[in-house]
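A student in our group prepared the protein record below, which I am reviewing. This is what I was given:
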Amino acid sequence: MIILAIETSCDETAVAVVKNGREVLSGELFSQADKHAMYGGVVPEIASRNHVAVIGHLTELALKNAGISKKDIDAVAVTSAPGLIGALLVGVNFAKGLALALDVPLIPVHHIRGHIAANYIAYPQLEPPFLCIIVSGGNSLIADVGGYTDIRIIGRSRDDAAGECFDKAARVLGLGYPGGPALDKLAQDDGSGKPGDDTLFNLPQPVIDGAPYDMSFSGLKTSIVNIVHNAKQKNEPLDTSSLAASFARTVSCILVPRVISAAKAFGHSKIAIAGGVAANSRIRADFLKAAEDENLTLFIPPLSLCGDNAAMIGSQGYYEFKAGVQADMNHDARATMDTDIVF
């Protein structure tokens, strides 16, 4: 089954052609990061306008690079929730028009389920059940993946997402947008080729009473802002490399123990990581070590599949279709939606 997949939930336009949920025939992506950098974050209206400008061209390019024509498409899958509503609407309406014109099924896909499915592309041998943590700019979730479409959230951030915290920390340090890669680089090199001291700053690691797998990042974000502002106000030098390293260590300390504990509690021997924050080198290294220490099998997708992409939507779309999920021309995008709700 060949699925044309579309992803426009935030500031990246992506189109991919995926075969049988696991084989990526082509994947195209247009990043708007440079267009939003001057604002320090994503401007929804600008994101939507840029999706409109490039989505048609990306679709033609994806088909060309896959070596197929429109008549070879068996279905169209599209991210329908959650995300920036204007951005989502561009992808959903384009997908609806394409599915109608080609007379093929329209498959709505939840963005978070797509991130989980990125692991199916990276690891053909991976099958549910397993535990997955999804850490991105908009979400920080721990999911019990009982099946391809049987996904239950057992832990989540009570406030900010980990990725949002990364972007805010990078912004206050003057590193620009997107913040994750720049913050990671700063933590690894203090300017002399040495990594920052990740124990120099003692940053908060909140615990949610009665909810062992839930997380909170707002206090960490506030702490970083206060440290930087206080140093500026007092005109004191600030070891930004060590602050970046301490920040990454703290986020890792919030994430890793909860995931390991949840895996044990729910009887999982396999753990998967998904989302843009999974690209952080410290977090990846700490998960690898923890999994090895606990004799758990860890799956981390390559960097190209950690961020938003259409291949993951095509992969999950295949399994949604097999489960009987389809949409008609009345289908609409949704800015928010729980992962266990069926379209």
